[in-house]
């Protein structure tokens, strides 16, 4: 399988350098020659929305995605409506930043009824479609690892995200493939092919052995067991040619100097992805 | 959904009271009126195989399963053959103890090629079938939670275990449903129905929020988010009427006095399963 020969699709998800402000991350990308960035909303809020858009454009960066919307299920209709409102703000922010995709982390169930929560997710996304379309922002359903099913996302398999996207069947809704969340699935390659042009994002990192922490224990590419290049080829064969985000939740990595992380990221990307 | 009205199907998996020797666990079950036990092989080895069988029979207990065989993938043919030999020993032990089922935890990959590891698992189980049949022991493929894919089992969904059992298509091979490993799967109920008479075991416990530890962080029934009764009803509707094992990997629970754990187990079983 052919390696990548340039970093022109490489994107920094700001969680990877979580100690940096957005300005520091933007400057770091510019220094490192990385052309894409994927900011988290809290970093944008700190810097101010207009100012965030300006600093990203001034540095010549493009925005691969905004992280994150979602969190749809809630115990009452009023709470669910409030979540939809928050997602509308996220869509506006994505549009202002020029992000093509708003990543949806769909949320946990508010009680034990996981089936009902899944219906609330589908209903929530459906409600957002017109607003997303008006703003020229696509909604990317990101299935999370099943170990986050109780706390972060009742959407846990690519087959599930694909089924939801097919049910909605609009060009504004697709899926995001993150290797950390999906590598274990025996149906991964079938589901990547099924997703096809609906793939709106591709995230890389690695699965460490042992996992140092359930939330903050992801690895740098090459340090774990995921067949990164094989998955990248499958995603490309399905039709995805867009940016490739490095999204690593790892305290040790975010604590090291950001410039070091970016250098390592670039090398590992060419070597392993 | 109807609760259970007696504990006559309740079984103690010895991992739940991991500080107890097998003799202590057998005596504890007898005191608590629990009629089934599922020993781990290390506890049997400590007590001696013949002696273990005798103490269990003398106490009037039945053995719901022996934990565990499996661990098939390895880097060389010689290593894989050694794993098969070890599984033959486990089958002999299960037969000696009168266990109807040997639970298979299928093992991690020896390298990054998870697809090859899965083939090695299927091949390993196939090799064991004649020996299992001779000894009157059934082989129960237990899919583990995907968070254990890199370290314990490349078999991570019930659909996968069902497909393997269907491919082998012999009465000696079935599947084991453990709620901790499978509760998150949107295809769970479809796959339980598909498994049907191939279900050879049913394990209960709970998924705590937050998870205190990736390996030793399971909960007592009722302390977490799993729809235990709904799953139990589905397993019964599929045809399974056998023992229900309480298998909890949790240091806090195994550190408390075993008799307390057994009392709590009985109450929670009637209340939540």
From TrEMBL, chains A, B:
SUPFAM superfamilies: Xylose isomerase-like
Database matches in Gene3D superfamilies: Divalent-metal-dependent TIM barrel enzymes (3.20.20.150)
UniProt keyword annotation of Isomerase present: yes
Domain (Xylose isomerase-like TIM barrel): residue spans on this chain: 29-264
Keywords carried by this UniProt record: Isomerase
Alphabetized GO MF terms: isomerase activity
Keyword ATP-binding applies: no
Cited InterPro entries: IolE/XylAMocC-like, Xyl_isomerase-like_sf, Xyl_isomerase-like_TIM-brl
Domain of life: Bacteria
PANTHER family listed in its UniProt record: HYDROXYPYRUVATE ISOMERASE (PTHR12110), XYLOSE ISOMERASE (PTHR12110:SF52)
Protein name according to UniProt: Sugar phosphate isomerase/epimerase
Lineage, broadest ranks: Bacteria, Bacillati, Bacillota, Bacilli, Bacillales
